Amino acid sequence: MKFLTGVNKKETLEISQLITGDYTGKTVKVNGTVHSIRDMGTIAFIVLRKREGLLQCVYEETAADFDLKQLKEEAAVSVEGTAAESAKAPGGVEIRLTGITVLSIPSEPLPIPVSKWKMNTSLETSLNLRPVSLRNIRERAKFRIQEGIVKGFRNYLYEQGFTEIHTPKIGSRGAEGGANIFKLDYFHRPAVLAQSPQFYKQMMVGVFERVFETGPVFRAEKHNTKRHLNEYTSLDFEMGYIDGFEDIMAMETGVLQNIMKTLITDYGKELEILRITLPEVRQIPAVRFDEAKRLVSEKYNRPIKNPYDLEPEEEQLIGQYMKEEYDSDFVFVTHYPSKKRPFYAMDDPEDKTYTLSFDCLYKGMEITTGGQRIHDYKMLKEKLAARGMTEEGMEAYMMAFRHGMPPHGGLGIGLERLTMKLAGEENVRETTLFPRDLGRLEP
Q1: In the prediction, which pLDDT does 224 show?
Q2: Which position among 221, 243, 340, 344 has the lowest Cβ density within 10 Å, counted as fewest Cβ atoms?
């Protein structure tokens, strides 16, 4: 009988170990995928792709017991050789090969040049071949940046006393209302895919006071734009005992600061690969919705067409205004009109046509929606009635308020949009691992 006691210790090394350890002149073993082969005649450079980046190996026929012609790009291999310093090699280290063991070999050549710095393929081709196209170093780096965003978000909220929760993605009704709901048959009962974890995270404020979640949300919007998806990842939090919705914006400011700190600390290589210059988030301006519309209308001579919502062009102009006037890439636009916010949004007691809510725009695009929620049961029932809504499908949600809830609020951040703007991409599909839109269910 065998007993497992933890991670098995391996003889093979990772790139970080080769760089930081004392391995120069010593025999080492490394596993990896053949990213590229440059045959120079007397020698060849075999570049391995590993989880930490690229590793250069030097092949000399007289030194290595292996026929180079048997090796193909994308073959999984185990190599052995002598570690050596090299100023021209990635990371300043290379392996001078003495042996190669092929672990698996591809049955056909790659359909796109993933080893090139830029593949120069169309977005549709890249998405159709996603399991392969993501092997490209630049493509892969976007999703390491995305990992860093989630890490910064999650770690900061842990530090602030939040509890991570995991809520259902199948429910009896949508939290946001409207027609953008995916309906499905749930054992002969009508059900929907979650538009957000809104109801559940509010209910859990009554349990844990501060909660957060990272997970998918679904919107059946018939949009085919560069900024919309039908499934995306939302970074949500909800917090109780707030003094006002300003507490929510302050918490997001801290989240964004920690995300940037995390990217600088742990993802410098990816920032360099993608040539990302991180924004300054020491302080973020906040401006009322109606004031923001007035400011950009006056400065850019643009008439206000819709007094109840922000058009994409207006968001861009607000971002441009804040950059020009305050050198800020971010801005909180507050006090959105009540008619454009869900029923649970707290109305401004000074003017009930507006709400104690906000959007956070980054470089002219909405990445966050949040605000203070109604916590009083009677007030919540009155808002539902005023909108002609019933409590059907929300009985458990309403029960939480019937038994008392603290003042609370929260927000949701669109992960793919934030990644897109940080990476300087123009289409949100570029920073979505496997996009789901009007025409795409594969891969």
Answers
A1: 82
A2: 243
Residue 46 to residue 37: CA distance in whole angstroms:
5
Average of per-residue pLDDT across 410-430? 97
What sign results for the dihedral spanned by CA atoms 21, 27, 29, 30? positive
Question: ∠ CA(312), CA(316), CA(318), 5° rounding?
Answer: 115
DSSP tag of 51: T
Residue 83, pLDDT above cutoff 80:
yes
Q: Could you write out the three-class secondary structure of 139-177?
A: HHHHHHHHHHHHHHHHHHHHHCCCEECCCCCEECCCCCC
DSSP 3-state of 96:
strand
Q: What angle do CA 90, 36, 145 make, to 5 degrees?
A: 55
Three-state secondary structure string covering 58-80: EEECCCCCCCHHHCCCCCEEEEE
Residue 188 CA to residue 185 CA, distance in Å, equals: 6
Higher pLDDT, 244 or 5: 244
Query: pLDDT tens digit string along 311-332?
Result: 899 999 999 999 999 999 999 9
Backbone angles phi, psi at 413, to 5 degrees: -110, 130
Q: State both tokens at 217.
A: 């949300």
DSSP β-ladder status, 286-288 and 330-334: parallel
Q: In this structure, what are the phi and psi dihedrals at residue 345, rounded to the nearest 5 degrees?
A: -70, 135
Can you tell me the mean pLDDT for 374-382? Answer: 96
Instruction: Report the C-alpha gap between 143 and 3 in whole angstroms.
Output: 36
Q: Is 305 exposed, middle or buried (0-12, 13-18, 19+ CB in 10 A)?
A: exposed
Cβ pair 230, 218 in contact under 8 A: yes
Please give the DSSP secondary-structure letter assigned to residue 265: H
Average pLDDT for the chain: 94
In contact, 167 and 211? CB cutoff 8 Å: no
Omega of the bond prior to 90 within 30 degrees of 0, cis?
Answer: no
Edge-to-edge order in the sheet of strand 210-218:
163-164, 210-218, 231-240, 408-414, 365-372, 357-362, 330-334, 286-288
- For the four alpha carbons of 401, 406, 409 and 415, in that order, the dihedral sign comes to negative
C-alpha to C-alpha distance for 302 and 309, rounded to whole angstroms: 15
Q: pTM for the whole thing?
A: 0.94
Q: Are 376 and 401 in contact (CB under 8 A)?
A: yes
List pLDDT tens digits, range 27-73: 999 999 999 999 988 899 999 999 999 999 999 988 888 888 889 99
d(CA 281, CA 156) in angstroms, rounded, equals 15
